[in-house]
Design brief:
Blueprint (H helix, E strand, L loop, with lengths): L4 E9 L2 E6 L2 E7 L1 H11 L4 E5 L2 H4 L5 H9 L5 E4 L5 H9 L4 E4 L1 H5 L2 H10 L4 E10 L2 E6 L4 E6 H11 L3 E6 L11 H10 L4 E4 L5 H9 L5 E4 L1 H4 L5 H10 L7
Parallel strand pairs: 1-4, 1-12, 4-5, 5-6, 6-7, 7-10, 10-11, 11-12
Antiparallel strand pairs: 1-2, 2-3, 7-8, 8-9
Length: about 250
């Protein structure tokens, strides 16, 4: 069995790490460079940086901030937000990112996934999907959860895979920041219908939620923010707990 990954997420707004509930009511969570360095020291498997207002504000990701964070970490680094063309990907990889995460731009222009995969390799292309469960189905949203689309979670994830995505980062907007557990049923459906890794996001509040997402949700990785930022759970403490539950994790 491949080891499950634990991934802290830095949601960035105005150069600072923030965290909200259901994508709203954002509060400051600290300096992203310091947090990134600390997670690297603690043994996080990867780090995700999402410039959460770049698409909404119609601007590019903070490349200088990406460069500063990259200098202080020695783990794989995924960057998303405001990526619209191959030139953006090239700049971020040049600044120290290992992978890029595309969300709104990919929904608007699905060919972007194929272009990234063909030019940089599928391993560089993470497709992030923000979806909300409403009326019996999961609807995908644009611009940091602000604008609903006609696309549905499972068919869009399948298309993303077919176009060359290396992995799917699925955030349940219903579960985001609520700390009541991940959207395990939807995650299991994704995992069983696709053959690329699934990263679970939205809902982490206790160590048991991580064991559940790996066993019930069949996720390959679990991403969390506030429980790490506010020191509610330590990464080594979490990995020890998962090992005791018989779940393979990287030491």
């Amino acid at each position: 069995m491949l080891a499950k990954r634990i991934i802290p997420c830095l949601d960035i707004k105005d150069g600072q790490t923030v965290k909200g509930i259901n994508f709203e009511n954002l509060r400051s969570a600290g300096d992203p460079v310091e947090l990134g360095a600390e997670y690297s020291r603690q043994g996080a498997d990867e780090l995700v940086f999402l410039d959460i207002t770049a698409s909404h504000e119609g601007r590019k990701t903070f490349v200088d901030l990406v460069r500063r964070i990259a200098r202080h970490i020695n783990i794989p680094f995924t960057v998303g937000g405001g990526i619209h063309e191959l030139r953006d990907v090239d700049k971020l990889l040049g600044a120290g990112a290992d992978k890029v995460s595309v969300n709104s731009a990919a929904l608007r222009n699905p060919d972007l996934i194929s272009e990234i995969a063909q030019n940089f390799g599928s391993q560089v292309c993470t497709v992030a999907i923000d979806a909300k469960f409403d009326g019996g189905e999961w609807t995908c949203y644009l611009n940091g959860g602000r604008i609903p689309t006609e696309r549905k979670l499972f068919e869009w994830a399948k298309e993303a895979q077919e176009r060359g995505a290396g992995e799917i980062l699925f955030t349940s907007m219903n579960h985001d920041g609520v700390k009541q557990g991940f959207a395990n049923e939807a995650l299991r459906t994704l995992s069983e219908s696709l053959n690329i890794p699934i990263i679970a996001s939205g809902g982490a509040g206790a160590m048991s939620h991580f064991s559940d997402v790996f066993t019930e949700g069949k996720a390959d990785a679990a991403l969390a923010a506030s429980i790490f930022h506010f020191k509610e759970i330590g990464i080594q403490e979490l990995k020890k707990y998962l090992c005791e539950k018989g779940i393979a994790v990287r030491k």
